[in-house]
Amino acid sequence: MKTRVVVTGMGVISPIGNSVEEFKNSLKAGKSGVGKIESFDTTDFDVKIAGEIKEFNPTDWIDKKDARKMARFTQFAVAAADQALVQAGLIEKKEGERPQVKSDPERTGIVLGNGIGGFEVITESFKKLFDAGPKRMLPLTVPLMIGNEAAGNISMIYGTKGPALTQVTACASGTDAIGEALDLIRAGRADVVITGGTEATIVPFAVGGFQMLKALSAKRNDEPEKASRPFDADRDGFVLGEGAGVLVIESEEHAKKRGAKILAELAGYGVSADAYHITSPEPSGEGGGRAIQLALKDAGIKPEDVQYYNAHGTSTEINDPTETKMIKYAFGDHAYKLKVSSTKSMTGHCIAGGGGIEAIACILAINEGFYPPTINLDNPDPECDLDYVPNKAQEGVIDVAASGSLGFGGHNGVVVFRKYT
User: Fold this and answer.
1) 250 forms bridges with which residues in the sheet?
2) Residue range 353-357: average pLDDT?
3) Spacing of C-alpha 314 from chain mean position
4) Is the pLDDT of residue 96 over 90?
5) SS3 category, 334
6) What range(s) does the Ketosynthase family 3 (KS3) domain occupy (predicted)?
7) CA dihedral 392, 393, 394, 398 (to 10 degrees)
8) Does domain 270-402 have CATH number 3.40.47.10?
9) Catalytic residue flag (residue 171)
10) Is 5 in contact with 190 (CB distance < 8 Å)?
11) Residue 309's beta-bridge partner residues?
12) Average pLDDT over residues 236-244
């Protein structure tokens, strides 16, 4: 019999809120976090908009000395992890002290998803290298930029000594990290795992690179809040976002023994590869659909028992109709009874951070009894003919929610959450 795994803490840094409460309220209100890029001069760019984090002060969660030694993606991850650990009751904050986890440190692990690492560090160091030579590069270039440093810093700050791993499957990284964390606990390698995803890619190099792929929305620079429009016939690309979503998960036995409040059950995980194309999903939807089926099978849940599916929903020409096929492939006739939405319509595409952020959206949907909307869905694409909860959140009883993420390279990951009983 599989070990039951539950969620006891959540933390989020996102374009629509830097706490779970702010994030929840924004989801319910259908608030867009997309605006004009303020972090760099976009004069030479066709794309001038993104879902940037607003009013983020890392020292609200992190010691000032520690924060200076972290890239932005790591700061996001530590801030979200801190929130999640506080909610889970696994740390106590004391002035001037690093909070140590109350669980057995050797049985407490970390699995975080990250796609690209410290992009702003890479950009700055390359500039110094080319302009002034290697001796002017940032001394901490390497430890700041590499993707595993988010997990490493969380381990050092909170004193966890179990596995500290980083999952890299492009835009599926956050979801795959949660799935791998589930497996760690089921395998008996950990009692508690801090998991989710983090990303900070709103820098000239990343925006320029995605722009050259023709992947980003470039038609709505003057109305940025309308640019991310998944499943809409007038969509013209995704909007880059940033942020982190982090969960604390643990075995049911461990959570109950310490009297933790259980937020949801993490019931299943499915993963597959398309073996098709480096940037495009397999056109029939079989690959992603199979990941959904595997996740439901792993959870022991029938397709008709799922009420809500948080779609990858990027707002690109290719993704949205293909993902619609994936959902139909996995759910059959129930696909038309299912509520499907893309919260990327509000946050933008937070790359590896998306999987963690969207997992939190699913848990909030279950606990708060609402379906997050797909905003800007004004002119539905005829090929996208499911119920995408257009423009306004809807009330409803949700017992089971699933979240899917698709990554360049054909990576498909799906996690399933169930109301805890």
Assistant:
1) 6, 192
2) 98
3) 13
4) no
5) helix
6) 2-419
7) 150
8) yes
9) yes
10) no
11) 340, 402
12) 98
Do you know the residue count of the chain? Answer: 421
pLDDT band at 1 (very low <50, low <70, confident <90, very high): confident
Residue 93 has pLDDT above 90, yes or no: no
In order of 34, 265, 383, the CA distances from 24 in angstroms are 17, 19, 30
How large is the average pLDDT for residues 384-391?
98
What string of DSSP letters covers 238-251? B-BB-EEEEEEEEE
Q: Report helix, strand or coil for 58.
A: helix
* Residue 226 confidence (pLDDT): 98
Q: 302-316 pLDDT, tens per residue? A: 999 999 999 999 999
Over residues 66-82, the pLDDT tens digits come to 999 999 999 999 999 99
Catalytic residue among 171, 350, 362, 384: 171
Cβ atoms within 10 Å, residue 285 = 21
Q: Structure tokens of 340?
A: 């499907």
Torsion, CA 359, CA 223, CA 212, CA 350, rounded to 10 = -10
What pTM, to 2 d.p., does this model score? Answer: 0.97
Residue in this structure with the two tokens 């279950």, named with its chain if needed: 366
Q: Choose among 259, 272, 245: nearest CA to 356.
A: 245
Q: At what angle do helices 352-368 and 20-29 cross, to 10 degrees?
A: 80
Measure the CA–CA gap between 280 and 50, rounded to whole angstroms: 22
The DSSP H or E segment spanning 28 is helix 20-29
Q: Fold for domain 5-257?
A: Peroxisomal Thiolase; Chain A, domain 1 (3.40.47)
Closest alpha carbon to 403 in 308, 303, 332, 314: 308
Strand 339-341 to strand 308-310: parallel, antiparallel, or no bridges (unpaired)?
parallel
Q: Which helix (H) or strand (E) holds 286?
A: helix 286-299
Report domain extents, the chain.
5-257, 270-402
Instruction: Decide if 153 contacts 194 (C-beta within 8 A).
Output: no
Give per-residue pLDDT as tens, 182-230.
Answer: 999 999 999 999 999 999 999 999 999 999 999 999 999 999 999 999 9
What strands, in cross-sheet order, belong to the sheet with 400-407?
164-167, 108-113, 192-199, 243-251, 5-13, 264-273, 411-418, 400-407, 308-310, 339-341
| Mean pLDDT value of segment 272-286 | 94
Tokens of 1: 């019999």
